[in-house]
Amino acid sequence: MHDACKQSEGLDWRALIDCSPVATWAEDLSAIAWRFDELRAAGVVDAAAYFSARPEELSRLARLRRVVAASRPALVLFGAGDAEALRERVYDVVDEPCRAALASELAALWHGESLIETEWRVQDRVLSRRLAAATMSARGIGHVILAATDITEQRRTERELRFARFAVDRSHIPLFWIFSDASFFYVNEAACASLGYTREELLRLTILDVDPLFDRQRWERRWSDPNREVIFESFHRRKDGSSIPVEINSNHVIYEGVEYSCAFATDITERKREEDSQREVARRKDEFLAMLGHELRNPMASIRNAVAVLCRVGPGDARAEAARNIIDRQSAHMVRIVDDLLDMSRIARGKAILRREQVDWSALVRTTAEDLRPGFEAKGIVLTVSVPETALWVDGDPTRLVQVLSNLLHNAEKFTDRGGVHVDLHAVPGARTGRLTVEDTGIGMSPETLTGMFEPFAQANVDLARSRGGVGLGLALAKGLVELHGGSIAASSAGLGRGSRLTVELPLRAVPAQPRPEHAPPEPGRLRILVIEDNADAAESLKDLLALMGHQVETAADGPSGVRVALDWRPDAVLCDIGLPGEIDGYAVAKALRADPAMRSVLIVALTGYGQAEDQRRAKDARFDAHFTKPVAPDDLARALATQRTPSAPAPP
Asked: 127, 153, 290, 460: least CB-packed within 10 angstroms?
């Protein structure tokens, strides 16, 4: 515009304004030139500071400006009918948004500049103004031509872009804008932080430096399909050389004619760790199921072979006695496996219940070790026990504490081929704590094995464990039981081939328990016993066992027939399964029998596969006298029957 004005000297610049296609107008600034002279005479030197500090002077100078010509677009832009109305619209009210622009423009005119650019805010619009001198007076200022362009949308777009960049830069998700040659155009702060680079350092690199799994062919295919979103996993290499797993969400973008790849990189370290953990759990479960199958098939094979032997030899044959011993040992082994599984499940779900009492831990350790000594001697392993003569009292469940020590000793026996196992119990000096250690000279443990040895299904070596037996629950179960008692358990080993040590600590009680007199259970008389059991083999074998104990036995296969036989036959005891077929289960049978006055003194015992605490509570509510989880030990059953001391009179004819 300035060049056009200079070339138009001698031409009618009013004609140029009239035909201008943009908002253009001319102003006569002669009055402003007179005012500048007055201010200089008054000693004003720094015009910019003077005008900025005096809004009233700005308003005065604005009113001295005279619009002498205006183009049609200028009148439309400001909504004015003529030049004077345009001046009023622009200069009569100089509000805060316009003061800085007007002060800057006047200061430039003060210094004689002939081309001035400013930005004005008029109402809700943003205008870009250019001022150029058209004629000069003796004082340096004559007429000027101004052009205004509405840049409101441009500024709004720029503001939105700045905000978008600010938001992206503050995003916690790393963002990369990448050129087609794989170099970086833009990276946000999160991207710099995730990789450990400054922005300047990262912008000098390419994706090849960051992504060690970068696939050039995949990159080129991505560029060939601009509308396709690509999601894939990779690794990003940090400045320090470490790597982090990431999920890349990449889009092809064309902006101002330039192609980019806009890629968000989400750190999936935690997700990968969780996936690895789940795979490890699945692997352990698979190994456990294989081990469980191995452990169950072995005793089942032994039992089946022993049954075949019993079918082929006479009762007095020594091989028959050996077969019966095999069946007894192997069935006990299977019961122990199932019990461990159920106990582990209860502990994991917080359902395990301790029957606490004052326990002499010294006596318990001594007795348990002696009970297990034959197994060690059979393998040639020396078992030594060091227990204080005085009692160490703990508040605990004696059955569970025996289970803990038994698991530790079974583990030591299993992984010790020669040498010995030493058990030591003592009070920790200066603490109200008892410490039990089981130390062996066996195969030892690697650091990796020590890390997860108390996890369920953990095995030091699967092939080795299969050859020695076990399903990987013993130590996990011991840990859970010890922690239920408020104690701790730890393991240590000097390495493979150098033995292991397991240490249990429990809080001691200051007051010793009062000894309670023990009474041997009375011998039962000949009882009339009704067995209600839907499993024919279980019913028949239990009937034979009870008959061998000297009792008279009848059986029923369901609830209704069981109630009918009981009311007709009047037994002394009823052994009833819970999960009976039909509408009447074992609980309903017990309630029906108790409803008959003649049956209220009958001993009713639940024999069931349901052994949870809730099952025992329901049995008590149904008025069972005792609750046994299958398989029940014959001695335990005999003790329960011994409480029913008076046999009933013979049934009426």
From this structure: 153
pTM over 0.85: no
The confidence score (pLDDT) of residue 288 equals 67
How does pLDDT run across 613-630, given as a tens digit for each residue?
778 888 889 999 999 888
What are the tens digits of pLDDT across the range 513-523? Answer: 455 444 444 45
Q: What is the pLDDT of residue 512?
A: 57
Q: Are 87 and 65 in contact (CB under 8 A)?
A: yes
Mean pLDDT of 475-497: 87
Instruction: Classify residue 301 by burial, with Cβ atoms within 10 Å: 0-12, 13-18, 19+.
Output: exposed
Instruction: Write down the architecture of domain 2-150 according to CATH.
Output: 2-Layer Sandwich (3.30)
pLDDT at residue 8 in the model: 42
Q: Decide whether 357-507 matches 528-642 in CATH topology.
A: no
Where do the structural domains in the chain lie, given as residue ranges?
Answer: 2-150, 157-267, 280-348, 357-507, 528-642
Rounded CA-CA distance 312/323 in Å is 11
Mean pLDDT, range 184-203, rounded to an integer: 89
What is the average per-residue pLDDT within 136-165? 77
SS3 332: helix
Query: Of the candidates 87, 82, 74, 79, which has an alpha carbon nearest to the alpha carbon of residue 28?
Result: 87
* DSSP 8-state class, residue 515: P
Task: State whether CATH 3.40.50.720 applies to domain 157-267.
Answer: no
Tokens of 238: 């940090």
CA distances for 209 relative to 204, 245, 290, 485, angstroms: 10, 15, 46, 56
**CB-CB contact of 383 with 456 (8 Å):** no
Long-range interactions of 623-626: CB distance < 8 A, separation 24+: 623/590, 623/591, 623/594, 624/576, 624/590
Architecture, CATH, for domain 528-642:
3-Layer(aba) Sandwich (3.40)
Task: Give the C-alpha distances (Å, rounded to integers) separating 118 from 21, 107, 108.
Answer: 21, 12, 10
**Own/partner pairs, 384-389, CB within 8 angstroms, 24+ separation:** 384/420, 384/421, 384/422, 384/423, 385/422, 385/423, 385/424, 386/422, 386/423, 386/424, 386/425, 386/426, 387/362, 387/423, 387/424, 387/425, 388/362, 388/425, 388/426, 388/427, 389/362
Does residue 9 surpass a pLDDT of 50? no
For residue 179, what pLDDT is reported?
Answer: 83
What would the two tokens of residue 359 be? 């326990």
The CATH architecture assigned to 280-348 reads: Orthogonal Bundle (1.10)
User: Please, what's the b/e burial string for 520-553 (b: 16 or more CB within 10 A of its CB; e: otherwise)?
Assistant: eeeebeebbbbbbbbeeeebeebbeebeebebeb
pLDDT per position as a tens digit, 367-388: 888 888 888 888 889 999 999 9
Please give the CATH superfamily to which domain 357-507 belongs.
Histidine kinase-like ATPase, C-terminal domain (3.30.565.10)
Tell me the CA distances in angstroms from 626 to 271, 352, 572, 590, 647, one per residue in order: 50, 19, 14, 12, 18
